[in-house]
Amino acid sequence: MTTGLDPVATAASASCGRLVAFLAARWGDLAAAEDAVGDALLAALERWPEDGVPDRPEAWLMRVAKRRLLDDARRARVRTTAAPLVARLAALRADAPEFHPFPDKRLALLFMCAHPAIDPSLHAPLMLQSILRIDAERIASAFLISPAAMRQRLVRTKRKIRDARLSFELPAEDECGPRVDSVLRAIYATYGAGWDDPHDTRGEGLASEAESLARMVVELRPDEPEALGLLALILFCEGRTRARRSADGTFVPLLEQNPADWDRARIGEAETILRRAASRRRPGRFQLEAAIQSGHCMRVDGHDTPWGSIDAMYRQLVALAPTLGNLCAAAVARSHASGVAEGWRLLESVDAGAARSYQPYWAARAHLLERMGRTQDAGDAYRKAAALTVDQAVQSYLRSRAGSCSR
């Protein structure tokens, strides 16, 4: 046995998605696989503090989750389900109790979640919950519906997957292409959730999971430019991760970061991948976002930030994907490329009602107001932005900016 801090959380973040994907593929029931893995994690929470962490935590969790599925099958009494259950039991018994490592089925499950039989509006939410274990409340907030409605829709969808016996294997080439965009958008949403989560630890959390999945998609479809673009985007951002906090944990915004603290290797890999994507001559959203990050990363070689080029790329990006986040970032870029008045004009075009509870909008607004000399309004906007973030380091930074505007 080994010991460690918060071992159940560590095992969950490292193994949960892979466990669910593997068991769902073998069992044919996504909801049952999720419940079994959840029970295994609860058992670990009860047992490991007293018994110690197993040398192979993932194998321990797999054994307990499989036992839960087998016990449920043995209790089943409905004759119509007997034959399928016998087949599933045989498949699970064929695996050694300590089967390790087991095949990684996460990518297959991602593509299954994008099956044409599933409501397209549920592709990304289903992927986020099933593979990445993001709770329904958090997903509902991202998709602007109530948590109860989101939970209900996800339950119904998982029941449909089970009853229709949708395949948990990677689709054929002619079926794979149409699902790629949904898969990429889910991975992008996952990375964003990890990036914004102050508790996400690199190497264990959602950001690392998103990078791993993006690499898997590129391996599956090496000539898909948007898959390459998404991986490059993630690597550019990850290349700057360690500069986001100072030695004492203080938040450092992008424009104030020291490029000497950036990871040249990751940024270099991102540049290579982005060039591969561009050579396909099929531009898209993720390639544009990666190219914007490439512009910011030019500082690592001592160059100034090319605001004119970044502004031009944001114009194209907003035309393709006019999201709140893209519009707010585009306004800041415009202010640096063409003057703060132009940036302010663009930000004022954003729907204030939709942006009312959107933290990046208030942060962008505060930044532009401060640059225009409207310090009192800037201070109010900084305080609003601070109230909308759960990251204590970011809160402290924004409140500090608000305090500076009040002096």
Helix and strand topology:
Elements: H1 7-27, H2 30-51, H3 57-75, H4 82-93, H5 106-113, H6 123-130, H7 136-142, H8 147-164, H9 173-196, H10 206-220, H11 225-238, H12 264-279, H13 285-296, H14 307-320, H15 324-338, H16 340-348, H17 352-355, H18 359-371, H19 375-387, H20 392-406
Helix pairs in contact: 1-2, 1-3, 1-5, 2-3, 6-9, 7-8, 9-10, 9-11, 10-11, 11-12, 11-13, 12-13, 13-14, 14-15, 15-16, 15-18, 16-18, 18-19, 19-20
Q: Give the uncertain stretches in residue-range form.
A: 1-5, 96-100
The ordered string of helix (H) and strand (E) elements is: HHHHHHHHHHHHHHHHHHHH
Helical amount among residues, as a percent range? 55-70%
Structural class by secondary-structure content: mainly alpha
Our count of helices gives 20
- Main pleated sheet: none
Shape: globular
Gap from first CA to last CA: 57 Å
- Can you give the mean pLDDT? 85
Radius of gyration: 23 Å
What does the model show?
The protein is mostly helical and 407 residues long. The protein contains 20 helices and no strands. Helix 1 crosses helix 3 and helix 9 runs antiparallel to helix 10. It is globular. The N and C termini lie far apart (57 Å). 40% of the residues are buried. The N terminus is likely disordered.
